[in-house]
Amino acid sequence: MNASLSPPIRRALAIAILIVLIAALYLGVVQPLVDNYLADRQSIAQLQDAVAKYRRAAEELPARQAQLAALERDPASAAGFLQGTNDTLMATQIQNRIKSLSDQAKVDLRTSQVLPSANEGKLKRIAVREQLTGTIGGILAVFHGLEAAGAPSLFLDNLSLRTRPVAARPNAPAADEVIDVQFDVYGYTHGAS
Questions:
Q1: Which CATH architecture has domain 87-190?
Q2: CA–CA gap between residue 100 and residue 97 (Å, rounded)
Q3: pTM higher than the cut 0.90
């Protein structure tokens, strides 16, 4: 069966085939090329921004190195660090500070244990585990003294609180609750070894 199409239908069919071929050529060849070109331009722009940032950092490097050298020579920069020739002496500094603060706050120092030191980057962490018993006001005074007393800087960690009821006596003023506290105190020293 050989059916012949009329000329307008043949023209419409030829135009439709031409449109499909042009669309396939655009979607298969041109569009991927355009997408790659746009992605490459975006990548180039990001790389140019990164190069500019690295150039600025390289220009600032001598000034930053001079600042670092000045800080290393300045004795005030070591004020926040523990000072001593060995870990035991530095841990004793922490223990003495806690003992002094607990005496001032009328808090009982139950136990004090030196924990193993640990290297953290270029610093060494010196830690002590303490157990105190006292009123909430006394315990808070010790904590405040540890963190606010200046050099060397000390930090609290692993805090554990437990209250103990106080036996009330008839016709006696209300007493503060007694609190058992266990915590770690640590500070840092230069030069991890």
A1: 2-Layer Sandwich (3.30)
A2: 5
A3: no
